[in-house]
């Protein structure tokens, strides 16, 4: 059983006020036992089930605050109860486009999600959908998950959002879970350089390419961000630029998902961004992927 401790009352109250949501606890390396040489490090946050707003989707064009380079982004924001990690039948072995999966899963909006192998076809990392564990564990890469039906300290109902590095026991009761590569935002601050997956000088961090990210806003909503690019042309954001844009969007927690030619957004059955499945300028096309981030209409 995981042994964690509550944040000090003043720190918890301050962070909850910043987030605008009800904070349960943050588990850090010093708080738990090390198992098999691995130490869990993750944040656990409850968010209210807010029915006052639904899914919003839009394009955003601008320049990154930290570099001044331009970007084209596709953004979706929704309350947590509309968020789902999905995968089609035999999805780890039978890859499909995001459009195909959005139709299968009745997603109003969907993006690509987890990393995967082409040959032989396989999913990478932890993957839980609708409470069914597709595969695990993957302790050394960052995760984003949800558990349904939690109660906030003020007795209102909500969902639990979990972000960070977890062992098998940590994810046993989650409803949804996806593994990414790079913890971009933590507690409202850029966290890329502290990610376990790579060093700050890793080429994966600095590479200019299409990117997909998943985050939690200060208001407790789930945010999906896809920024266009062309990998072989070195067009698109690096991870520091992604973090900069996420902070502009009031995101307080975020992870990096699969990117490059996989980065695709689909809205109401139509491709919403400019995906380059072959990593080249032409054609504009969707790549067959495994898991997807799915937002339902209601």
TrEMBL record:
Record's signal peptide: 1-29
GO biological process: secretion of lysosomal enzymes
Key words, A-Z: Signal
Matching Pfam families: NAGPA
Domain Phosphodiester glycosidase: 107-295
Keyword Transmembrane in annotation: no
UniProt entry tagged with the keyword Nuclease: no
InterPro entries the UniProt entry points to: NAGPA
Family annotation (PANTHER family): N-ACETYLGLUCOSAMINE-1-PHOSPHODIESTER ALPHA-N-ACETYLGLUCOSAMINIDASE (PTHR40446:SF2)
UniProt protein name: Phosphodiester glycosidase domain-containing protein
């Amino acid at each position: 059983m995981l042994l964690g401790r509550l944040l000090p009352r003043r720190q918890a109250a301050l962070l909850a006020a910043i987030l605008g949501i009800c904070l349960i606890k943050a588990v850090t390396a010093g708080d738990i036992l090390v198992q098999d040489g691995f130490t869990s490090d993750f944040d656990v946050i409850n968010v209210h089930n807010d029915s006052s707003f639904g899914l919003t989707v839009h394009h955003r064009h601008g320049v990154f605050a930290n570099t001044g380079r331009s970007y084209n982004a596709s953004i979706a924001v929704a309350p947590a109860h509309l968020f789902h990690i999905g995968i089609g039948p035999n999805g780890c072995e039978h890859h499909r486009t995001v459009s195909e999966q959005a139709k299968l899963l009745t997603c109003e909006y969907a993006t690509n999600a987890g990393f995967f192998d082409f040959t032989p076809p396989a999913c990478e990392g932890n993957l839980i959908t609708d409470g069914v564990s597709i595969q695990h564990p993957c302790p050394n890469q960052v995760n984003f998950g949800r558990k349904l039906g939690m109660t906030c300290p003020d007795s209102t109902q909500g969902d639990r959002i979990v972000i960070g590095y977890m062992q098998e026991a940590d994810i046993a009761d989650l409803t949804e879970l996806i593994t990414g590569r790079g913890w971009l935002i933590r507690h409202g601050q850029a966290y890329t350089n502290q990610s376990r997956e790579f060093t700050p000088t890793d080429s994966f961090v600095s590479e200019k390419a299409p990117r997909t990210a998943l985050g939690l806003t200060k208001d407790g909503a789930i945010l999906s961000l896809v920024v266009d690019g062309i990998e072989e042309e070195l067009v698109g954001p690096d991870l520091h630029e992604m973090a900069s844009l996420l902070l502009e969007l009031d995101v307080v927690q975020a992870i990096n998902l699969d990117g490059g030619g996989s980065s695709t957004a689909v809205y109401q059955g139509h491709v919403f961004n400019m995906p380059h499945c072959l990593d080249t300028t032409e054609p504009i096309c969707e790549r067959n992927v495994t898991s997807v981030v799915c937002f339902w209409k209601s």
